[in-house]
Amino acid sequence: MKKLHILRTILISICFALMLTLVIPPLFDAFFNKLDPWIMGMPFLVFYVLVVNIVIAVILTILWNVDKKIEGGRKDE
After folding, report:
1. CB-side exposure of 70: number of CA atoms within 13 Å?
2. In 24-43, which residue ranges form alpha helices assigned H by DSSP?
3. C-alpha span between 44 and 66 (Å, rounded)
4. What is the pLDDT of residue 1?
């Protein structure tokens, strides 16, 4: 049970850090706002935003499953 709580904390931290990279202008502009490396027909910025959103969705799905295991399938009344 303790390992699940630690995993939950780590996943929430990763999600938060990824979301911060999308909203902090100096970090976002300096590293990701580029047109040159085209990946799968998209500029790097569009590709990065797409990948970050997909990764966050996957992490949140894993987090949802971890929360269900922590609660033991208990339903709120």
Report:
1. 14
2. 25-31
3. 32
4. 65
Q: Note the pLDDT tens digit of each residue in 2-56.
A: 787 888 888 888 888 888 877 777 767 777 777 778 888 888 888 888 888 888 8
The 8-class DSSP code of residue 67 comes to: H
Q: Show the tokens assigned to 19.
A: 């979301």
Angle between helices 44-71 and 2-23 (to 10 degrees): 160
Structure tokens at 64: 């949802």
Q: Can you tell me which residue has the tokens 């990948």? A: 51
> Whole-angstrom Cα distance, residue 67 to residue 73?
9
Q: Looking up tokens 């938060």, which residue turns up? A: 16
pTM score: 0.67
User: Is the C-alpha dihedral spanning 56, 58, 60, 62 positive or negative?
Assistant: negative
